[in-house]
Amino acid sequence: MEHVSRREVLRQLALSMTAAGSGVFNIEAARVVHALVGEERTQPEGYSLKWLSPHEFATVSRLAELIVPADEGGGSGVDAGAPEFIDLLCSQNDQLADIYRDGVAWCDRVMRDRVRSRFVEASLAQQTTLLDDLVVAETARRRGALRQGVSFFGWVRRMTVDAYYTSPIGIADLGYQGNAVLTSFDVPVAAIDFANRRIQDI
Q: Residues with Cβ < 8 Å from 200, sequence gap 6 or more?
């Protein structure tokens, strides 16, 4: 694909993320986003942030690492490029960008109230306690003061998992053997079902 058309794919995927009634994640478009990220990562200067501030990027990176940690099956959400994936999409969608900016600010505000530090500066136990509280509030449908955090965590969790399972690392984790250069690409139904189950389990 030509560079201009890939940028258009990026824009359309970003806008579709917040479109009313949109429940379908375009896997082909996600692979284009990964390609753009991968090209920048290979440059001497590495990936340059498109929208997130360095602090916001660090926070999203920490969340991605907690959501999909590295294990014997493969790398983490950070290894798969989820933070860059999110940054690129935020740069093309103001509504999505606001979700992340406000969400990171919420995490920092609540963590300051709890332990007098920003989220990324808190201990692992303090970070996971906050995320556990969000999951409990979501499951119990008693969100209260955690409502904004529950909504934000839902976004970052879903996008991290989407980014992971459309990346080379995630595809390898699924054990899918067809990740080669092809003129067309169809994701196996089993891979999609597995990814959807993982999203529900997180």
A: none
> Contact at 8 Å (CB) between 75 and 84?
no
Sequence-distant (6+) residues with CB within 8 A of 188 are 176, 178
126 by Cβ neighbours in 10 Å (0-12 / 13-18 / 19+) ranks as middle
* Model pTM score: 0.77
Q: Which domain holds residue 172?
A: 3-201
Give the span between the Cα atoms of 84 and 33, in whole angstroms. 9
Residue pLDDT, tens place only, 73-112: 778 999 999 999 999 999 989 999 999 999 999 999 999 9
DSSP class per residue in 39-93: HHHTSTT----SSS-HHHHHHHHHHHHHHS--BTTB--TTTTTHHHHHHHHHTT-
> Which residues, including other chains, have CB under 8 Å from residue 154's CB and lie 6 or more apart?
138
Summarize pLDDT for 144-183 with one digit per residue, the tens: 789 899 999 999 999 999 899 888 888 777 664 443 433 4
